[in-house]
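Hi P.,

Sorry for the delay on this. The queue was packed all week, but I finally got your sequence through. Input first:
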Amino acid sequence: MKNHVSVVTVTYGNRFHFLKHVVNSALREGASKVIIVDNNSAPECREKLRDYEEKLGIDKIKVLYLDDNYGSAVGYKRGLEEAYNHFQCEFIWLLDDDNKPQKGSLRELKEFWNNLNDINKEEKICLLSYRFKKEQLALKSIIYNKPELVLGLKNSFSGFHINELHKKIFRYLKRIFKLGNNISVRENNKSFGVVPVAPYGGMFFHKNLLDKIGYPREDFFLYGDDHEWSYRITKESGKIYLILDSLIDDIDLSWIVPKNNTQTAFSIIANGEPFRVYYSIRNRVFFEVNNIVDKKLVYWINMIIFIILISFSSTRNVKFILRAVRDGLKGKLGKIDVLI
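Then the structure:
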């Protein structure tokens, strides 16, 4: 495959030190062009970015400078539109501004795509690079053929279901007493598998896929927009293939990833920044009730237990969670200017 591959990434704040590694690695891997959406980054970051753009030239890099931070959904939408409308672009590879492609990562995607015999694959297939520091659940879902590990069980709340509470406790105890390690890619015989949803970072597809699923929803603003968008592929009877040999290094870990063995998803949310907690829960609730909930009573039971477990760690964010639940159920999306 010698076709034009455009990388799309979104940056914000003061993250040029991460972004530069991502861009350089993507170009070394064979990307034809990198499109960067600058979500109103810090002045010092924007200055470095302008110099970098001038150094590499318009053939290799193009930066779209936005006048405010409009969130990941708008950022990726703008970047996708730019790539789609470029006459040379055929394939799009999405990367977060801290997703550093490893050697051979793009080659693995191209080879898998070329060997995939699927009618109309340009309109229904997405490949996904493997973020080996973050996507353990996706790996387990492939090994055990359990897509619910990624998406959550039917009627789960924010991925939590009472039927799996004992498993969470067991996994927590294993971490505390160091009784087991994370699953390694090399411990299984699979090199790829199908997952129901995907993060932006690592998605690789023909641009014609956008004709089928459209663009991310701007009113999601932050968090969950990638799952809502990528799940459209699954709902349209398409497939998302996670390619385990196409490796991406997350050089800056997400806030939701445990920093030590004692942290749990509950304690992270209980003590997280309110705006992160609000958007994460609100958008997840909206996604769940419109896609995986068919028994409202079970969903509400899971919700109540989830909030109780959060309260054991801290009550600080409970009011933001309750507001997020209310807004998610009502479909009240968009950017919230003030959280009280």
